[in-house]
Amino acid sequence: MKPRAGILVALGALAAAVVVVGIATVNSGRARAPVAPAPSRAASQQTPIGKVQVGVKGLQLKDYDESGNLIWRVKSSGSMDFDRGKLIARGSDIDWELSRGGDSTLSVEAAEFVADYPDKQIRFAHGIQVNASTGELSFRCDGAAYDLDSETFSAQGKVNAQFRDFSLDAGTLGLDRLSSQVRATDDVVFTYADYVLKAGSAKVDTDKQTAVLTGEPNLKRGRYSVRADTVRVDAETENVNMDGKVRLRHGKLRARGNRARLDKRAGRAVLEGNVELSDDQVTARGPRLDIDESKTTATMTGEARCSLKFAL
Fold first, then answer.
1. Which one, of 191, 254, 252, lies nearest residue 227 by Cα?
2. CA atoms within 13 A of residue 298's CA, in its CB half-sphere
3. Selection from 239, 171, 163, 235 nearest residue 206 by Cα
4. What are the structural domains of the chain?
5. What are phi and psi of 43, to 5 degrees?
6. Three-state secondary-structure class, residue 28
7. What was the pLDDT predicted at 307?
8. Dihedral through CA 8, CA 24, CA 5, CA 13, nearest 10?
9. Confidence of residue 292 (pLDDT cuts 50, 70, 90)
10. Is there a contact between 24 and 8 (Cβ–Cβ < 8 Å)?
11. How many CA atoms lie less than 13 Å away from 208 in the CB half-sphere?
12. What's the whole-model pTM score?
């Protein structure tokens, strides 16, 4: 574990009073008790650290890395208590901010906050709202936590996330502090324009606005219904690419192939690789199938074989 430092600053009710409560340093996974600094001349009186918990409205807790760079900070509009002996801070009605490099931050509003240094966890509960400063991600959830060792943020329980071009519902969601990748699992429902996909898991790149869905993804769009092993969504190109055991239905039309591309902008779908097309009367096999929604046509190209059923 990298050396880390937490600084708890109490802003008193009196405008002229500033009380520095203490410094907690965590090094190589072991916590050292906070050391109270010399009393400030501006302070009217010093709270006896180590004997009682601190409970002052308007507290702020900050955490830095070994180079003095701010990692996260929290402020409370309700109350915050800091147990010097256990190295645990608790707060209500908090606003927590995580630095993600450069000017990028992730902010969390929650009714309850616990920073547990021995357990290396920060936990949030009740009324949780999360927002990225760059506007590429926001979500609500029932519970959330930040791991101080792995620097990962996780959310659980009815997570509803909004991206710049996508929306997502899932049971769990996770992200690394310095990464643009967001991971979602447990009954994922992913929406892009008029595409709705259900899958076991999804990975979204918030910088590139791309998504990869796995775990039996099932896509629906109008009369389209498509299944595949993997689905890749690219908001910039407006393409949805599907790989592995692609099965497509469009009205009475059924098609299979190794891979498929749905072009939202052109209103077309292309299946390639051992394509089989069928309806109630016709079965055709070939290397490629083009479906044009505007013309309501399906065209098999390349060397194709066809069989017909006639009622006698």
1. 254
2. 21
3. 163
4. 216-312 (2.60.450.10)
5. -80, 140
6. coil
7. 55
8. 10
9. confident
10. yes
11. 14
12. 0.78
